[in-house]
Amino acid sequence: MNIMATEHALLCYMEDLKTVGNRLRQIRHFLKLTQNEVAQSTKTSQAAISRLEHGEEVYASVFISIIKYYSTHIDIGCIFNPNFEISPGLISTSSADSFKKDFSRKIDAIKDELSEANAVCISQLEFLKKLIKGR
């Protein structure tokens, strides 16, 4: 490969990195996530997320963990589509189902906590009533 062909290949690679990084940033914004939230969820650093979103190289393991994380929320194949655009249709059905299940579990946990708190309040109220009657 001659020098011009190598330079051209490198420029294409760098442009692809910028395109993918920009798309990942758009997806993160669409999902209303911060770089820190993505970093914590992927066990990477916020700096690595920033580098990737700015089209800079990162370790393959970082890129893969971020792609895996986003794929739980959206149809990740879209970032490689030349006609990429952000829309509610990006959210994967499994992600929506997962979100509903998660939300339902959280609601059930809150109901349980409220029931428990209510039972404790009632028993304290009964105790107070007995104290008052005892006088």
Strands, helices and their partners?
Elements: H1 3-30, H2 35-42, H3 46-53, H4 60-71, H5 93-134
Write the H/E string, N to C: HHHHH
Average pLDDT:
74
Total number of helical segments? 5
Biggest β-sheet description: none
Which outline best applies?
Answer: elongated
Helix percentage range: over 70%
CATH level 1 class label of the largest domain? Mainly Alpha
State Rg: 25 Å
Architecture of the largest domain in CATH? Orthogonal Bundle
Distance between the termini: 99 Å
**Regions with pLDDT < 50 over 5+ consecutive residues?**
none
* Amount of beta strand: under 5%
Q: Tally the beta strands.
A: 0
Describe this structure in words.
The structure is a single chain. With 135 residues, this protein is an all-alpha fold. The model has no long low-confidence stretch (mean pLDDT 74). The longest helix has 42 residues, at 93-134. The protein is built from 5 helices and no strands. The protein has 2 domains: 1-91, 434 Repressor (Amino-terminal Domain) (Orthogonal Bundle); 93-135.
Key phrases:
single chain, 135 residues, mainly alpha, 434 Repressor (Amino-terminal Domain), 2 domains, 73% helix
Briefly characterize the structure:
The protein has five helices and no strands.
